[in-house]
Amino acid sequence: MPKNSKVVKRELDDEVIESVKDLLSNEDSADDAFKKSELTVNVQEEKDTDIEEGSEIEDERPAWNSKLQYILAQVGFSVGLGNVWRFPYLCQKNGGGAYLLPYLILLLVIGIPLFFLELSVGQRIRRGSIGVWNYISPKLGGIGFASCVVCFFVALYYNVIIGWSLFYFSQSFQQPLPWDQCPLVKNASHTFVEPECEKSSATTYYWYRDALNISSSISESGGLNWKMTVCLLAAWVMVCLAMIKGIQSSGKIMYFSSLFPYVVLICFLIRVLLLNGSIDGIRHMFTPKLEIMLEPKVWREAATQVFFALGLGFGGVIAFSSYNKRDNNCHFDAVLVSFINFFTSVLATLVVFAVLGFKANVINEKCIAQNSEMIIKFLKMGNISQEIIPHHINLSAVTEEDYHLVYDIIQKVKEEEFPVLHLNSCQIEDELNKAVQGTGLAFIAFTEAMTHFPASPFWSVMFFLMLVNLGLGSMFGTIEGIITPVVDTFKVRKEILTVICCLLAFSIGLIFVQRSGNYFVTMFDDYSATLPLLIVVILENIAVCFVYGIDKFMEDLRDMLGFAPSRYYYYMWKYISPLMLLSLLIASVVNMGLSPPGYNAWIEDKASEEFLSYPTWGMVVCIALIVLAILPVPVVFIVRRCNLIDDSSGNLASVTYKRGRVLKEPVNLEGDDASLIHGKIPSEMSSPNFGKNIYRKQSGSPTLDTAPNGRYGIGYLMADMPDMPESDL
């Protein structure tokens, strides 16, 4: 080829990163060097073009080793601690088995469509949350930054829970378990049971005093709890080592962290079903209370649980799917992961209620034994006549049915004096109706039940190891929701960013391992994620359906999947889901306004919880958490709308491509004889390839040509590139 030829062949493996504005504006300049280094068009058939388009991006971005690894990563992210200690509580509180119906309906209306939407945009654009929403609409680019902020807030306190689980895991290698009995206190004269423990219970005392060493209010810091500080450090080291190489390192760990919880849950279920009372717990769970199901509160809580169970809005779903191949069937993935999540919640609920049924049976037996002794004492004292007790009943070894018979007889005969006797009815249902959730379920109720298990240390080790794995799986997706978009946008090294992120999070997370740290966990859990995530997902829905265009998005899906998705999703995304999300947002705001902002503090003298309101500075922190999470959305919108920052040389407007690797694209530029690619007539001109070649119609274009990949439009539109008339070229 002659040296002064207008087209100079360039090396295919040389990667160049240039701003789109620079690329186009330089055409008008008199830069001879630019003129002499035009890009070579690789003229091939459409089939070859598609192969090149896919292979180029595959070379530049890491990919999952297998489909199974990817599914396990998504399952590990979506299936978390909430499935074990939140869903069973909601099921118990909101009508038992009847709660499953509204949950399933809302899973189909909100859960699967929005989960499918996030999977699709991540796989289509192959960027993290910042890059995805910045590409779809630069003015809504703050959605991605807001997702990162929420992910960071959640990661701060979520890893503290993993630290708590690690502490209990380390203490489980003892026989008997350290929370089995109340500790004894010795003084000069005698030995007695610790008063705080005697007033509550052994497991409650161990949680609040031995594990957390909790203070009486959020204002009373009490200094660091060094045991929990070490556990928090260990949790962040585990996350950092697993995430430092991205999906190459975390993907392999997913095989264990995602599958092990199912092994433990199944083992627990089999073991508990062999114990007395477990069937009573399961029967209590599935007994439907249909009248409760019609209450609006039930539907609001079901919608909230669906929303958070799938990890919508965090950016982790988008980040994981961005490492997929372009032709991956993400619709199948969305349905599969959603139903795996649902059935995991049901399995966990079966286990929880079976364990609570066993625990209720043990407590009920103790109750019957204690009250039978009281009845025998009343018989000896003459308070109760022996004649009213049926002759076939032996109060020294009374059954549950016989005790209830005696109780009813005494209640009828001693109607006026009965309250003075202080006898308890000892009903299993009363114990099962005591709804517990969160840390109260995992670290108090469940640990108490396991003390009655044969070989209790083994089951305790398994249970808390399961909690650690459930937490880590969700943490991987949460951290990926921060790392991937930042690396994609600012081109920093993933290893360095991961270490910095984990160190920063550990340093800030020290507020959660103070003696008052549990109250801060409650604060962050209540205020840092709920409203911001709802707003983020609403904006995601609006960006795709009304800014990018729902018809165009459906065309993208048809091209990407190889088949047209059901029109069901079209109507869900465009009409039903936005209305449902707005209703949920309004209901959440109203509920938050009606509920007094506060927390349950542990009062040492009373050995019980007491609701306290947040101090003034606490209210400021609560409001700041919400504002900081949402703030990137209006800030980026104003910056983009008013052009306050020139992005012509910034990373946000950059496009990565390879020299000489430009795809054939039919375009029509009226009256433009000078093309970027010399030697081609306008109809044969090619457009540079960005990502997956998502095309957008440019203003001023009189005609629409169909792109090879099924999108419509001419040229290409980058993150911050405004519509350009032909004269600008």
UniProtKB/TrEMBL annotation:
Keywords: Amino-acid transport, Glycoprotein, Ion transport, Membrane, Metal-binding, Neurotransmitter transport, Phosphoprotein, Sodium, Sodium transport, Symport, Transmembrane, Transmembrane helix, Transport
Single GO biological process annotation from the record: L-leucine transport
PROSITE patterns tied to this protein: NA_NEUROTRAN_SYMP_1 (PS00610), NA_NEUROTRAN_SYMP_2 (PS00754), NA_NEUROTRAN_SYMP_3 (PS50267)
Transmembrane segments: 70-88, 100-121, 142-169, 226-247, 259-282, 302-323, 335-356, 458-483, 495-513, 533-550, 571-594, 614-639
Reaction it catalyzes: L-threonine(in) + Na(+)(in) = L-threonine(out) + Na(+)(out); L-asparagine(in) + Na(+)(in) = L-asparagine(out) + Na(+)(out); L-phenylalanine(in) + Na(+)(in) = L-phenylalanine(out) + Na(+)(out); L-valine(in) + Na(+)(in) = L-valine(out) + Na(+)(out)
CDD domains: SLC6sbd_SBAT1
Family annotation (PANTHER family): SODIUM-DEPENDENT NEUTRAL AMINO ACID TRANSPORTER B(0)AT2 (PTHR11616:SF101), SODIUM/CHLORIDE DEPENDENT TRANSPORTER (PTHR11616)
Protein name: Transporter
Organism: Prolemur simus
Chain's gene name: SLC6A15
